[in-house]
Design goal:
With 529 residues, this protein is an alpha/beta fold. The protein folds into 2 domains: 347 residues, Metal-dependent hydrolases (TIM Barrel); 94 residues, no CATH class. Strands 1, 2, 3, 4, 5, 20, 21, 22 and 23 form a 9-stranded mixed β-sheet that branches. Strand 22 and strand 23 form a beta hairpin. The longest helix is centred in the N-terminal third of the chain and has 16 residues. Bound molecules: zinc ion. Zinc ion binds next to loops. The site of zinc ion has 5 residues, from loops.
């Protein structure tokens, strides 16, 4: 007797192969059988006219704090997600303790939202145990953020670690991994990891050489210098013989569109041919979202938010900075590459700034009758540098190129600021791929799209039993009519659930039934095994 039988399905199993007709039986949280004319179950779902796929997997979210908020999992389930992984871009919420604890929490805030007492951050073990005790609606995993580890040891001011500090960073990563983190994330575009030279980075990761630990990386640059940044990571992967996943591959800035991404995909393919373990993923939007301080040159980030604010008070420093942004190509010069009209301040916390939330820096400057550079600096000062931006940086043809590469996975890079507006990708990424790129633009077949959202990301982080619809694998499943999948959020109104998921099963138990929330609380914490 099965617990649940899904009859008359069009099965898309996550492998990328053609769909096939059949039934799927579920018992004790696992897929018990896949075949024709199965019978004998306590409960039957007729899936005629709909497809059945493995539950979608997002290995790149920043839900470190959001996992502890009420209703966590709902917006994720609505787009078919049954598994998410946080702690990306070097910025994990654990382990954080010691003298720099508050500085690290402040730094993470625009990305993860506030990390209050409900979110234990002292160790990966405590964090994961607390997440588990909440009985999450979906499966949750974590990466060990190498930026967090470094900042917790040496803060944001220290540009070069001494041997003792390096050893402590390595020990923290090692502990987090042994406590269940699924891999290590790097944030070389952010302080303090931007201070690593390539040699120092290789040294920092050396204890993990020739091992199975996946390394994900937000590269040093994603605009003018994206190819050099990729070359650096291929060197790291090759030197240390480690699997490296390039997170959210893109080419920022108009002059880089349609030339850097094709080259990057070529470089990745060539590296794989010589045996380097390198792959990439992308989110399906032309805008990104991160801290506004990410527009600053790396040397300006030294010392953390207080030091940055101090510098921004100085007219002399402002003058220098404006010159760098107007002319600089020696850093990821987002403002210079895309212009102030393409940088939206999506989260502003101070009451006096509320009228400007959601507007571009250019528009805020117009309203204030000020220069946009001075406007950006004034906003950063008044918000203690804690501003989340949505920045229109990429070109859709590049996104399509990456999506069409068989080795590229889909991710969302969802950030969860506590205040203000999130990026629509938080609510919509996985619906958008089906609606826009499979349905409207027809640049991807549904089986290929599903593979990018299931088997491929599962392989990247070695998530056992997940990503394929196979006998004995976890019964995390989606049932839907692809024509009915819709992203409902937009940049102006991002917080709208995606539509069209008829059933979503987590560990064999329906969390969504006929589009309505059902049994929430069957997710698990996934630990490295
Ligand atoms: Zn990132």
């Amino acid at each position: 007797m099965y617990d649940l039988l899904i009859k008359n399905c069009c099965i898309i199993d996550g492998s990328g192969e053609d769909p096939f007709a059949g039934d799927v039986a579920v018992r004790k949280g696992k897929i018990a059988a896949v075949g024709e004319n199965l019978s004998g179950a306590e409960r039957t779902i007729d899936a005629a006219g709909r497809v059945v796929t493995p539950g979608f997997i997002d290995i790149h979210r920043h839900a470190d704090g959001a996992a502890f908020r009420p209703d966590f999992g709902k917006l994720e389930l609505k787009q078919g997600l049954t598994t998410i992984v946080s702690g990306n871009c070097g910025l994990s919420a654990a382990p954080i303790d010691g003298d720099y604890r508050q500085a690290v929490l402040d730094y993470l805030r625009p990305i993860t939202g506030a990390l209050g007492p409900e979110t234990p951050t002292a160790s990966m073990a405590e964090y994961l145990a607390a997440a588990e005790s909440l009985h999450p609606a979906i499966h949750v995993g974590m990466l060990a953020g190498a930026g967090t580890a470094r900042a917790a040891v040496a803060g944001y001011a220290c540009e070069h670690l001494n041997a003792g500090q390096l050893g402590q960073v390595q020990a923290r990563l090692h502990d987090a991994l042994s406590e269940g983190a699924l891999g290590i994330s790097l944030g070389l575009g952010y302080a303090p990891e931007c201070f690593y030279t390539t040699e120092e980075l290789i040294d920092a990761l050396r204890p993990f050489a020739h091992g199975p630990i996946p390394i994900t990386v937000h590269m040093r640059e994603e605009g003018d210098g994206v190819l050099e940044a990729l070359e650096e990571m291929l060197t790291v992967a090759e030197t240390l013989d480690l699997p490296v996943e390039i997170s959210h591959l893109k080419a920022m800035g108009k002059r880089n569109w349609n030339n850097k991404v094709p080259k990057a995909l070529e470089m990745l393919a060539e590296a794989r041919e010589r045996g380097v373990q390198a792959s990439c993923d992308a989110y399906p939007y032309t805008a990104g979202s991160t801290q506004l301080i990410h527009i600053l040159p790396h040397d300006f980030l030294v010392g953390g938010t207080q030091a940055i604010t101090r510098r921004l008070h100085s007219p002399q420093q402002r003058k220098l900075l404006t010159h760098r942004i107007q002319t600089g190509t020696d850093f990821d010069n987002i403002a210079g590459m895309v212009g102030w009209e393409n940088i939206l301040c999506s989260t502003l916390r101070q009451p006096e700034n509320q009228p400007y939330q959601g507007l571009s820096v250019a528009e805020i400057a117009r309203r204030l009758g000020k220069d946009p550079f001075e406007t950006a600096y004034d906003l950063l000062v008044s918000e203690d540098c804690e501003i989340t931006m949505i920045d229109f940086i990429a070109d859709e043809s590049d996104i399509i190129r990456i999506l069409q590469d068989d080795t590229a996975a889909v991710i969302s890079d969802s950030t969860y600021p506590t205040e203000g507006q999130p990026h629509p990708r938080v609510y919509g990424t996985f619906a958008r791929v089906i609606e826009r790129y499979v349905g409207e633009q027809r640049v991807l077949s549904l089986p290929k799209a599903v593979r990018k959202m299931t088997a491929l990301p599962a392989q990247r982080l070695r998530l056992r039993g997940k990503g394929l619809l196979r006998e004995g694998w976890d019964a995390d499943l989606c049932i839907f009519d692809p024509a009915e999948i819709h992203e409902r959020g937009s940049y102006s109104e991002p917080c709208r659930y995606a539509e069209g998921m008829d059933y979503v099963l987590v560990n064999g138990i329906p969390a969504i039934v006929e589009g309505m929330f059902a049994d929430l609380g069957n997710g698990e914490v996934i630990r490295r095994n």
